[in-house]
Each structure stands twice: as C-alpha cells, then as structure tokens.
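Form 7-S
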Amino acid sequence: MVRKSYVIVVVALSLLFTSLQAHAWNSVGHMSVAYAAYQQLTQPEKDRVAALLKLNPNYSKWLGYIPASATPADRDMYVFLMAATWPDEIKAMGSGYSGNDNPPRGESINLNTGYTDKQTHKYWHFVDTPFSTDGTALPAVPHPSALDKIVVFQAALATNEPDAIKSYDLVWLEHMVGDVHQPLHCATRISSAKPHGDLGGNDVVVNGPAKELHAFWDDAVGLGDTQNFMTAVKVTQTLPAPDPALANDAKPADWVAESFSLAKTAVYVDPVGPGLGPFTMTPAYTAAATTLAKQRIALAGARLANLLKTALNCSATSCAN
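Output:
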C-alpha cells in the first residue's frame, strides 16, 4: 500500500511538472517581451501601469526581489517585467489557484472578474490550431483561447472598468501577447499517434536538458525565473529591431496566424520528423531557433507597447462604457 501511494504521488507530481512547462516562453522570455515594450511607453503610460500593478497580489513579493538601491523609476520598470510572469506564477503548487489545460464547458469568452477569479485558466495561454501531415482528421480549435482573451482584455483595458479589473487584464495581456508569438503556442500537430494533438510539442521528446520540443523553444533565449529580471534586460539588449510594418499590425489574429505558419515552416522541420521522437537538436536548428525566438520576442514587445498605448490613453470620460 505504501509503494502504491508513492507511485501515485510521483505520477501526480510528474503531471503537475508537465503542466507547468506547457504554456509559455519561460520567465526570461516573457520579461524580455515586457522590457522591449516598456522602453516604448511614455512617462504617463509608465505611471499608469505602475499604479495598476500595485493592485496585483504579488506586488509585495516582486518588490522583495528588487535591490534597495534601485531608483523609483527602475523599481517600476522591474515590477512591469515581473508582472509578465504572473499568469505562470499562479500555476505553481500552493498558489491558491486551481485548474487544468482544458476549457470548462460553458465558460464565457467574455469572462473578466479580476483577481477574485481563482482559476489558473491555463487554456488562455495558447491557441491550439491543428495541422496534420499524415491526413488525420483535424479537431476544432478549443475556446476560449489566448486570442479570444487578448481581444476581450484589450477592449476592457480601454473602458471605464474598475482599476482592479484593469490590473488583472494588464498582467494577462503582458503575458498572452508574448505567448502568441511563440510558434508552439499557436499550433498542435495532429497524427494517427496523437489524434487530439501533441499539445504544442509537449508530447514531442527531444534529447537534452529541455526534454520536450515545446520546452526547447520556451528556453530559446535563456533560462531564469521571475527574480532573474536582469537576465531579461540583458537578453533584450541583443534583440533585433522589429520590422516596422509588422510591428504596426494591431490585429491579434494576424499574430497567431504568423506563429502557426512558423510552427509548420521553422519548428516541425529537420531534425524534428514525424512521430514523437526522441529527436536530437542540431547546431543549425538550435541557432535558427534562437534567431527566430529573438525576432518574435522583439516583435511581441513592439506590438504589446502599441496595444497598451491605445488602451491606456483614455480617461473615465473618454473610455467606452
């Protein structure tokens, strides 16, 4: 009986670890998107997001990661970076939040109740757009998805909703805009072996520390947790300038379509073959992944900045009801 209980616990922890790996750039990637966006905000816009982020339940914890010597301006910037990781932080054991990867039946796409919502909403991190190379029938895209929620929260941020709601929307937007620029957040490969999809590459085994194709791409620009915000600052300083025309594309559906196309043309390519692996990443594939990840993060930062500029530059009298 003791051995059986031990096995159950190990399996449960393994499933939990997998779910925590499943739906994001890692913290460095998300904070790099946030840093790139923050540089493009005006001082009034920075002041507004700083006021909103003070309402986040993790605000005091984030302040504890910042050196006492930091200036008030740098403190606000670092908090903005760390806030981009909050939707992943609540997936941790003991966070007080619960939920799984599957949208519950009947959840409204327009759900937006703020921090009183104690669900992790892991399915808000991705858009499972299916494709197949072996003719397996394609399932429908589950809803609500990251695309649905970006549209809803962007609209809400530009209304006269209470600041507590806007704070929640802000941290999710910081995160989800980053998410949909990671190709494997917008695609799932359907096959006879995985007729419901490979979970955006999470079921595809690769040799090396990442172990899964999805994690390999999550970690493409470096490793680190929320408190490693300075790593993200250094990464962002190596990003290429995004294409201005692409940066000005304000349609989230286009961002998702780009990532879906890239998943097929740049992710599921040699040495990633049919099946579930294991596959060994070549130096050429790794270098190309790093280059593409930096391009996508830079583009995500520019688009996040534009989204926030549009949504934040309204007042109680000018915002829509």
